[in-house]
Amino acid sequence: RRSSDLASAQSLMLVGTWLTDVQSHVEIKQCEEGLCGYITKVAIREELYNENKQEINRIGIQNAFDYFNKDPKLRSRRLLDLQILTLDKKVADSIYSGVVYNPEDGKSYSGKMEIINKDQIRVTGCAYFKLICRSEDWFRVIESE
Predict the structure, then answer these.
(1) Does pTM top 0.85 for this prediction?
(2) CB-based contacts of 80: which residues, under 8 Å, 6+ apart?
(3) Digit-coded pLDDT (tens) for 35-49
(4) How many CB atoms lie within 10 A of CB 87?
(5) Exposure b/e, 113-136, CB count within 10 A at least 16 = b
(6) How far is residue 138's CA from residue 145's CA, in Å, rounded to a whole number?
(7) CB of 76 closer than 8 Å to CB of 65
(8) Radius of gyration of the chain (CA)
(9) What is the per-residue pLDDT across 25-37, written as a single tens digit (0 to 9) for each?
């Protein structure tokens, strides 16, 4: 069942590849739930790299696993192509809500995405009944032709 309120022209502005705060790439595309985001290039924060340098250098960053997932059975899945974003509801003009998964701590958060302009979006994840929230801006990756 496709979420019809997410098939609008404005939501289609979200479709594409986005550069995250840590320099990962996330591709957002239409999916059964509405819009879904998948990691297409893996990058991690320097402090996480330094803590796990030996293992990361051994397997290569693009082969990194979902090490921090709270479910031990999911820790062996690769981060590359992992779905980390599901937007299933339009809550206001240019604001969509859903669930954001953070592979840095292995937790899913109540989330929202706001279109700032055609090349910038703000992703927010909240915990503890939306009392604690963290946002970061993502920028569209312009593919060179």
Answers:
(1) yes
(2) 39, 40, 41, 42, 62, 63, 64
(3) 999 999 999 888 888
(4) 27
(5) bbbeeeeebebbbbeeeeeeeeee
(6) 21
(7) yes
(8) 15
(9) 999 999 999 999 9
